[in-house]
Every structure is written in C-alpha cells, then in structure tokens.
Amino acid sequence: MSINDLPVLSALRTKMQWHQERQRVLAENVSNSDTPNFKPRDLVEPKFNSTGQAVGGFAPLSLTRTSAAHIVPSSGESASFDQNRKVGFQTRPAGNAVSLEEEMLKVSANQMDYAAATSLYGKSLHLLKTAIGKG
Hints:
Layout: H1 7-31, E1 47-48, E2 54-55, E3 61-62, E4 80-81, H2 100-131
Antiparallel strand pairs: 1-2, 3-4
Helix pairs in contact: 1-2
Subcellular location: Bacterial flagellum basal body
Subunit structure: The basal body constitutes a major portion of the flagellar organelle and consists of a number of rings mounted on a central rod.
Protein name: Flagellar basal body rod protein FlgB
C-alpha cells in the first residue's frame, strides 16, 4: 500500500479537487454576470463514508400527501423535490440570475475550505513522515 492509497489522503485530495472545480464554476458565474438569461451554477459537495471513500450524490426526496386537501403530485420528475436545486430570488429583467454578492460569499467560503483541506493534507503527510522516522 502506497501513501497515496490511504483513505484520509484520498478523501482530502478529492475535497481539494472539488474546491478547485467549484472555484472554476463560481468564476464562470461571475464572468457571466451581465450575460442575458444566464443562470448561476454550483457543485454538490462530495460526501465521504467512515472509511474516507466518496459516496454517491443525493437521492431525490419524494412528496408525501398527508391530507386529502393537498394537491396530488403528478408522476415523473415533478413528483420529487430536488434538495440541491437553488432558485435565485433575484432575476434581472434580462433573465440573468447571478447575484455578485452571493457569488463572492461562495468564493470566499470555498477559498477558506480549500486552505483548511490543504493544511490537513500537509499535516497528515508530516505525521506519516514522523511515524516512519523521516520527519
């Protein structure tokens, strides 16, 4: 087993790659803030199990009718609720839904989370070097 096969390092690498890709998507949102009919995008954060392996995405939530007064959900895609779907509440008359303030907050949080992941990765490597007597 090589050092690269350790689950904690693999999970941290996956997390750092996700932050890099999210940074690209957020930068694309900012750069298209004046493009008519542009809808901002974002990525779903990866989840890890107890062994550090990335697990699949979210399963859609199904609607449940708890009262006879509720409208019966139609079958198909509209019968489920996508918990990851975010609808911007500010859409300009040209159809652009990018909020620069919201995008800057996401960029800032993404940058801090990336710094935390790289710090943990570096400290994990330092611990491994110490454990084998080369640190």
